[in-house]
Design a protein that fits this description.
- Strands 1-6-7-8-9-16-13-12-11 form a nine-stranded antiparallel β-sheet, covered by helices on one side. Strands 2-3-4-5-10-15-14 form a seven-stranded antiparallel β-sheet. The chain has a six-stranded antiparallel β-sheet with strand order 17-28-29-30-34-32, with helices on one face.
- A hairpin with a 2-residue loop joins β29 and β30.
- It has 19 helices and 34 strands.
- The protein is globular, with a radius of gyration of 27 Å.
- The model has no long low-confidence stretch (mean pLDDT 92).
- The longest helix has 22 residues.
C-alpha cells in the first residue's frame, strides 16, 4: 500500500501529504530543493466574534406567511435581507508556510523514487547522485506532536545546503535562536485575502510562529548568508523538527503564547533520538491503520506501477481492483492524518491547504461535506478519529443556543450550513444556501451512529444531552402548515433551487426594491413569468433528518434514564405529525419539496439531498420500505442522467447510495467514474477549478466518501443485522477484508471466492444477539444458539469471543 512516483512533485496537487491531526505537511520531494509546506489546524483568519442579527426574529412570522401563501420569491427576498447574520461570510483556514532546504552539488541523478507508505504513515525519497545514495524520510508524529524530516546519504559528509522558512503571511520576524540546537523562528500575523466566502475582520488576526530545529550529525552548522537561514556543511545526517503554534485556546480565547508552545514541543521532541521518534510514531499510527486490510485479488503488475501510471491505466479501461484497494486505504490514512482526539475536525481540505484564499474558505460545511468526512470513521475502524467532530458539536451546542434564541425565539441550539474555527452557528453566505437550520441535527446523528456501533452507555449519556437540546430547538421551531403537518419553516433543500411563477411586474418590483446586493441569486435567469427561489417549508431532507433525530432521541432517552416524560411525549407527537414523503404520480420520482417543482433550473445539481433517507439515513431500505427505495432509485437514476455527480464528493455519495440499493454493478461504475474524473496524481479528490484559480481544487470529502462507499459495498449493518457483501460487483469475485466494524459492537473479517462467501470471522465486544444476512448460506462453527429466521442467521454472542462462520 504505497503511492509512489519516479519524479518530484511539480505542483501542490502532486506533493504527498503527512499529518498528525493538528499539523499537516505536503512533501514535494525536490532534488536540488526540498519543500515541505505546512499547516496547523487552528490557523484561521479572524478572531473570536459573536454573530449579530436584530431583524431575524421580527421578520420570521412574515417570512412564514409568505411561504405558506406560495410567495417563495418574496419570502426569499425577505430572508436574504433579514435572516443572514453578521458576519455574512465566515473565516478561512490558512496555510502557515514552508520549510525549504536548498541542497548543494546536486548534479544529474538517477534511480529517483518518491513514495508515501500508507502502512507506516511516512513519506520517502531516494535517488543516486555521483558516488552516493540520498534518502529522506518525513512523518508527522501524533505522540510527539511534530513533523520530523531526516536527510541522509550513504557516503559520509555529503549533506550540505541551506534551510529557510517562508510564509505567505506578513512576517514580523525570522530569526535564529541560539542554543544546543539551532532553530529558525518565523513569526507572522495571519491575514487573509478577500475571496469566495471569506469574512471581514473581527478583531486583530492571530499571530503565530513556525519553528524549525536543525540537528546535524557530523559537519558544521552556521548562519546562512540571508537573514533567518541556516547552512549545514559536509554532514552525514541532518534531522529536522518542524512545528507551528498559534494563540488559540478555544473558540472564545486566543491568549496562548505561540513561542512558548513551540519551545515546549521542540524541547520535548528533541529528548528522543530520530529512531525513537520514528518508533513512537509507528507504534501509534499502526495501532489505527493496521486494524483494517483489503485485498481484491488485483493484478500483481499493478502494484509495480507508479501511481500516476496506475491511474492512467485504469482510465484506459484496465482492472481497477488494486487502485480501489489503495484508494480505500488512502482514505483511511487521510482521516487518521487529519482528525485525532484533541484536534480540530477535518475541514474541507482535511488539514492541508496552500492558499490564503482557499476555495470556500476551506470551512466545515455542515450540509453534507463535513459529515461525509466522517462517514468511514466507524465502519473503517477509526472511531477515535470521530472524536473531534463530537467536540465541535459540543461547542456548537453552546454557540448555537444564542442563535436559536435571537434568530428564532427557540430553546435548544441550531446550526446552519457552515461553521468555522470560531464555531459560527448562524445563517451565512446567501439565503439560497444559508437559511437551512438542520446542520446541528445531522451532526447529532453522528453521535447516535457512534453509539450504535460501540453501545457505550457512558458516551450515550454525553451524546443524549446534545441530541436532546437539538430536539428541543425543533420542537419550538416547527410550526403547523395549511394541511396541519408540523414543518420546518423557513428552510431549503441544500443549495438547490426551483422555479416560481411570477409576473414580470412583480419580478421587476422585487429586484428594484431589494436592499441586498445578493438578491436575486446569481443563477436566476430572466425567464418571462418565472424566477428562481430556494426558501420553502419542510423540504424532504428536513423531514428525513428530523424523523431520524426524533426517533433516536426516543430510543436513547430510556438508556440515558431521562425521566422528562412531557418532553418525550412531545417528541413522539411531533414524529407522528411530520409530513409524509411524496412520490410524484407523473414520473415515480421522490419529490424533493412538498410541491412537485419539476422541471428544475439546475437538474444536474450536485446535491441529492432528498435521498438522505437512503444514505446516510436508514428510512428507505429495499426490505423495510421497498416502494420508497424504488422511488429513490429512480430519483438517483434521474439525477445522474441529468448530470449530477459533477464533483468528487457528489460522485462519492452515489457509490454509497448504490451500495444501499444493493447494486454492486452501479456502485463499481461510480467508483471508477470517481477515480477517472475526480482524482489527482497524488489521489487527492478534485473539484473543477474555480474562476481565477491556477489549479484544480482539492476537497477531502470525495476521498473519505469514496472510502466509505467501498466499505458499504462489502458490509452493511444499519438494519440491526450484519449484511455480508451486499453490493459486491462480479469483477471483485475473490477477495478478503479484515477489521471492518458493524453496529452492535462487532468486528468482521470476510473472505470470498468466486463471488461466494468462503469464511467469515465475527468478533463480539458485547453480550448480545448477532444477526447475519448473506447470499451464501452460513453456519456458526463454534458456539451460540442458532436460529435462521427470514433468511438471517442469528445467535447469542459473548463479549470477547470470536465466532467462525463457514459456507454451508
Amino acid at each position: 500500500m504505497k503511492l509512489w512516483y519516479r519524479e518530484p512533485a511539480k505542483k501542490w496537487l502532486e506533493a504527498l501529504p503527512v499529518g498528525n491531526g493538528r499539523l499537516g505537511a505536503m512533501v514535494y520531494g525536490g532534488i536540488s530543493e526540498e519543500r515541505i509546506q505546512i499547516t496547523e489546524d487552528t490557523l484561521w483568519s479572524g478572531a473570536p466574534y459573536i454573530p449579530e442579527n436584530k431583524n431575524a426574529l421580527l421578520c420570521l412570522p412574515e417570512i412564514r406567511e409568505l411561504i405558506f401563501a406560495g410567495k417563495y420569491a418574496q419570502a426569499q427576498k425577505m430572508a436574504e435581507e433579514n435572516l443572514i447574520g453578521n458576519p455574512r461570510f465566515l473565516h478561512a483556514f490558512q496555510p502557515a508556510g514552508e520549510m525549504r532546504f536548498k541542497m548543494e552539488e546536486q548534479q544529474k541523478t538517477n534511480n529517483y523514487r518518491r513514495e508515501l507508505n500508507l502502512e507506516q504513515g511516512l513519506s520517502f525519497v531516494s535517488y543516486a547522485n555521483r558516488d552516493s545514495v540520498f534518502r529522506r524520510e518525513v512523518f508527522a508524529s501524533f505522540p510527539d506532536d511534530i513533523v520530523v524530516a531526516r536527510f541522509t546519504a550513504k557516503a559520509p559528509r555529503r549533506i550540505s545546503g541551506t534551510f529557510s522558512l517562508v510564509s505567505p503571511h506578513p512576517g514580523i520576524s525570522c530569526r535564529i535562536l541560539p542554543g544546543e540546537m539551532v532553530q529558525i523562528a518565523l513569526q507572522a500575523e495571519c491575514q487573509s485575502i478577500p475571496g469566495l466566502c471569506v469574512g471581514e475582520w473581527h478583531g486583530e488576526g492571530m499571530k503565530f510562529e513556525i519553528r524549525l530545529a536543525v540537528i546535524p550529525e557530523g559537519g558544521t552548522l552556521t548562519a546562512g548568508k540571508a537573514a533567518g537561514t541556516v547552512r549545514v556543511k559536509d554532514c552525514d545526517t541532518v534531522t529536522v523538527l518542524l512545528t507551528v503554534a498559534t494563540p488559540y485556546v478555544n473558540y472564545r480565547d486566543i491568549s496562548a503564547d505561540p513561542a512558548r508552545r513551540c519551545d515546549e514541543v521542540i524541547n520535548a521532541a528533541s529528548t528522543w533520538s530520530y529512531q525513537e521518534l520514528k518508533t513512537r510514531h509507528l507504534s501509534d499510527y499502526n495501532a489505527l491503520y493496521r486494524r483494517v486490510s483489503l485485498h481484491l485479488s488485483a493484478l500483481p503488475e499493478h502494484a509495480e506501477l507508479p501511481t500516476n501510471k496506475l491511474l492512467k491505466a485504469v482510465r484506459c479501461g484496465e482492472d481497477e481492483r488494486y487502485l480501489a484497494s489503495l484508494y480505500f486505504q488512502y482514505g483511511r490514512y487521510l482521516l487518521i492524518s487529519s482528525s485525532r482526539p484533541g484536534t480540530q475536525p477535518a475541514n474541507a481540505q482535511g488539514v492541508w491547504n496552500k492558499r490564503r484564499d482557499p476555495p470556500w474558505g476551506s470551512k466545515m460545511t455542515t450540509n453534507i461535506n463535513l459529515q461525509m468526512n466522517y462517514w468511514p470513521a466507524e465502519v473503517c475502524n477509526l472511531f477515535e478519529c470521530h472524536e473531534p467532530l463530537f467536540d465541535l458539536l459540543e461547542d456548537l451546542s453552546e454557540s448555537g443556543k444564542m442563535v436559536a434564541a435571537n434568530y428564532y425565539g427557540c430553546d435548544g441550539f441550531v446550526v446552519h450550513h457552515n461553521t468555522d474555527l470560531w464555531r459560527a452557528a448562524h445563517s451565512v453566505d446567501h439565503a439560497w444556501a444559508g437559511v437551512w437550520p438542520m446542520g446541528g441535527a445531522w451532526l447529532c446523528l453522528h453521535m447516535w451512529e457512534h453509539y450504535r456501533f460501540c453501545r457505550d452507555e457512558k458516551f450515550l449519556r454525553r451524546a443524549y444531552k446534545i441530541m436532546k437540546e437539538s430536539a428541543r430547538f425543533f420542537l419550538d421551531f416547527i410550526c403547523e402548515d395549511n394541511a396541519g403537518y408540523l414543518v420546518t419553516c423557513p428552510s431549503l433543500s441544500p443549495e438547490n433551487r426551483f422555479y416560481v411563477r411570477i409576473s414580470q411586474e412583480e419580478r421587476e418590483e422585487l429586484y428594484q426594491s431589494s436592499k441586498s446586493e445578493f438578491y436575486p441569486c446569481p443563477w436566476d435567469k430572466d425567464i418571462p413569468g418565472r424566477t428562481v427561489a430556494a426558501v420553502c417549508a419542510s423540504p424532504v431532507m428536513d423531514i428525513q433528518i428530523l424523523r431520524e433525530l426524533f426517533t433516536a432521541v426516543i430510543e436513547a432517552a430510556e438508556t440515558a434514564q431521562d425521566d422528562d416524560v412531557y418532553f418525550i411525549r412531545k417528541v413522539r407527537d411531533a414524529v407522528s405529525r411530520l409530513p409524509k414523503l411524496k412520490i410524484s404520480p407523473d414520473n415515480g420520482l421522490l419529490q424533493e419539496w412538498g410541491e412537485d417543482f419539476h422541471p428544475l433550473p439546475e437538474p444536474e445539481h450536485r446535491h441529492m439531498s432528498h435521498l438522505f433517507g437512503l444514505f446516510p439515513g436508514t428510512l428507505a431500505t429495499p426490505r423495510k420500505a421497498p416502494e420508497l427505495a424504488a422511488a429513490m432509485k429512480k430519483s438517483l437514476e434521474d439525477c445522474l442522467e441529468n448530470g449530477s455527480g459533477s464533483t468528487g464528493w457528489s460522485r462519492a455519495w452515489t457509490i454509497n447510495l448504490w451500495a444501499r440499493l444493493e447494486n454492486g454493478k452501479k456502485a463499481r461504475e461510480n467508483l471508477i467514474f470517481l477515480l477517472n474524473n475526480f482524482t489527482a496524481k497524488n489521489l487527492f479528490d478534485l473539484h473543477p477549478p474555480l474562476a481565477g484559480a491556477d489549479d484544480d481544487v482539492f476537497q477531502i470529502d470525495g476521498n473519505l466518501g469514496g472510502t466509505a462507499g467501498i466499505a458499504e459495498m462489502l458490509l452493511q449493518s444499519h438494519e440491526n443485522e450484519i449484511f455480508l457483501l451486499p453490493a459486491l460487483p462480479k469483477e471483485w469475485d475473490t477477495g478478503l477484508v479484515k477489521g471492518l466494524r458493524a453496529r452492535g459492537g462487532f468486528t468482521v473479517d470476510i473472505c470470498w471466492k468466486n463471488e461466494m462467501l468462503a469464511e467469515v470471522r465475527i468478533h463480539a465486544t458485547l453480550n448480545t444477539i448477532c444477526r447475519i444476512r448473506s447470499a451464501t448460506p452460513l453456519e456458526v462453527e463454534n458456539g451460540g444458539t442458532q436460529s435462521p429466521a427470514l433468511g438471517v442467521l442469528e445467535w447469542n454472542t459473548q463479549s470477547g469471543k470470536t465466532y467462525f462462520l463457514k459456507a454451508n
